[in-house]
Design brief:
It is built from 16 helices and 19 strands. The chain is α+β, with helices and mostly antiparallel strands. It folds into four domains: 86 residues; 91 residues, no CATH class; 71 residues, no CATH class; 177 residues, no CATH class.
Length: 538
């Protein structure tokens, strides 16, 4: 078949042309307030009544039970309208406003009135006890904050009583009555026919029910031991009394059971055996250690002495401090059967000096006295530092007359330079522990208060302050620093990269001791923290 020498490509398809049909503009129902008045005069309004004024028109609908109109529609000269139900204005976000842009220009009056009558009225929030305490007067100051619940009061029409013959006309009007509702500040008032409560009041009702349920749960629980009785609710007082009655009943049953067992299985000691046991305790006729002998002497002395005039032996106080440090609850149990110092007395012995953030002379002197007998390799130590979360609060120290609780890095200049505007309240504390490498030395030299996790630059300054005290004042040889694998601590290690040429390794694991250049100071990550991190990553 014949063919063309030059092939011709297919023609480019034409661009489709879309036909745009403009919407027909809405036809205005009303153009002015006069046209609305004319339509109202020609319209059958049934029970509705309207009142024409200079710049507005009011439409009312009464239900013959309340003084205020059930519906009141006010149409202004700008054709904007406002609706109120029993004196409560409809909120601006109601669908009746949004659908018509709150204007009757494109809305017939009959459609507006039929729409209002087709809705049901919101019954408001139920009158529960928790609601009645928070309800506010709409005309007074509002102090509840969000989700305000206000009182909606509607006067009721008075009814004549013809059976009363005391007045001149023989008719007496009933006393003044009102119908009261509790509503939220954003109550929609008009609901769909299938609903009887709006979304705002429903949310407030659910919140009140949750609070009431929570209150009922707490009202049946007993009070703590140190709770003030004068301000405690009666149901919790009753629950507390019932609990103590039950505990007393159980204790009486246990006592009776113990008395019964003693009477059944007990053995009465003879007078001679009783005297022998007493002489053993008083004369120490048995072989015992000096510590045991001192303990029995202190017990015998304090059992007969006035509890407010007891004087304890230093060795006995050390024993009580050790016992209290191991278990404070066990120490409290032993106080019921032994004559031991109170916890307040132990605190006075334990706090030889008042602790403060930073490095202080008292702690340095205490450390010097503890390591005064060390020599040679016994002076090698390591510094361990770690952070812990504390409860942020401000406390007035009556001894120093200072407010304690703000961040404190030891040096005021360093403290204020670390924060931009104001000194925040401390949330964490970083402590420095001195650990002997060849001895059993464990000594907390200082601590500092920080806001959040301390930065690497803050740790850098604080760490070398501690090392300077150890090297220059206490004569301890610091050769190691241990911390957990936190991001600020790893960055702190890397800050020493310029002091040593570690380009061949890429890891900063040691640095020169600035205060003893002949020794290196090595960095270690805390092994328990590394094991925990490995476990968490499995």
């Amino acid at each position: 078949m014949p063919y063309r020498v030059h092939d011709v490509s297919d023609p480019t398809p034409r661009r489709p042309i879309a036909r745009v049909v403009e919407r027909e503009s809405k036809r205005a129902k009303h153009l002015s307030l006069k046209s609305i008045v004319g339509n109202l005069k020609r319209m059958a309004l049934d029970q509705w009544k309207f009142d024409e004024q200079e710049s507005l028109v009011k439409l009312h609908l009464f239900d013959n039970e309340h003084v205020l109109p059930k519906f009141e529609v006010v149409i202004y000269s700008s054709l904007k309208f406002r609706v109120s139900i029993f004196g409560w204005d409809l909120i601006q976000s109601h669908p009746s406003y949004k659908q018509n842009e709150q204007s009757v220009k494109f809305l017939s009056i009959r459609d507006l009135l039929d729409t209002l009558e087709s809705h049901t009225l919101c019954c408001g929030v139920p009158k529960l006890s928790c609601v009645a305490k928070t309800v506010e007067d709409p005309s007074g100051p509002q102090t509840s904050g969000k989700n305000i619940i206000v009182r909606h009061t509607i006067p009721v029409v008075k009814v004549a009583n013809e059976n009363f013959a005391g007045s001149a006309c023989g008719v007496q009007l009933s006393p003044f009555k009102v119908c009261t509702f509790f509503r939220t500040e954003k109550c929609e008032m008009l609901c769909q026919p299938s609903s009887h409560i709006c979304s705002s009041c429903l949310a407030a009702n659910e919140k009140c029910l949750r609070e009431l349920e929570k209150k009922n749960l707490t009202s049946s629980t007993p009070l703590p031991k140190k709770a003030p009785l004068s301000v405690s609710p009666v149901p919790r007082l009753v629950a507390t009394i019932n609990q103590y009655r039950l505990e007393c009943k159980q204790l009486e049953q246990r006592i009776k059971q113990m008395e019964k067992e003693i009477y059944t299985y007990g053995m009465k000691l003879s007078e001679g055996l009783e005297n022998d046991i007493t002489s053993i305790i008083s004369k120490h006729s048995v072989e015992c250690s000096p510590h045991m002998k001192l303990f029995w002497e202190q017990q015998k002395k304090h059992f007969t002495a006035n509890p407010k005039g007891r004087r304890y032996h230093p060795q006995f106080v050390r024993f009580c401090l050790s016992l209290h440090a191991k278990s404070s609850s066990a120490y409290k149990e032993l106080q019921d059967v032994l004559a031991l110092p109170s916890e307040r007395t132990l605190i006075n012995y334990k706090n030889v000096f008042k602790p403060k953030p930073g490095i202080h002379k008292d702690k340095i002197h205490q450390l010097q006295n503890e390591v005064s007998c060390y020599s040679g390799c016994q002076r090698f130590v390591g510094v361990i530092f770690d952070e812990m979360k504390i409860k942020s609060s401000l406390v007035f120290n009556k001894h120093s007359e200072e407010i304690v609780g703000f961040t404190d890095l030891g040096d005021p200049a360093l403290t204020f330079s670390s924060f931009e505007d104001e000194q925040p309240v401390a949330t964490t504390v970083i402590a420095f522990l001195i650990r002997g490498l060849m001895t059993s030395l464990k000594f907390v030299l200082c601590y500092f208060l920080t806001s959040g996790v301390a930065t690497s630059f803050q740790i850098f300054n604080l760490f070398w302050q501690v090392v300077s005290v150890l090297e220059l004042k206490v004569d301890l040889w610091c050769v190691a620093a241990t911390a957990d694998g936190g991001s600020p601590n790893r960055k702190f290690f890397k800050l020493h990269k310029g002091l040593q040429d570690l380009s061949h390794t890429g890891v900063t694991y040691y640095t020169i001791n600035i205060f003893a250049p002949e020794r290196n100071l090595y960095f270690f990550a805390d092994v328990p923290h590394l094991i925990k991190t490995t476990r968490n990553c499995l």
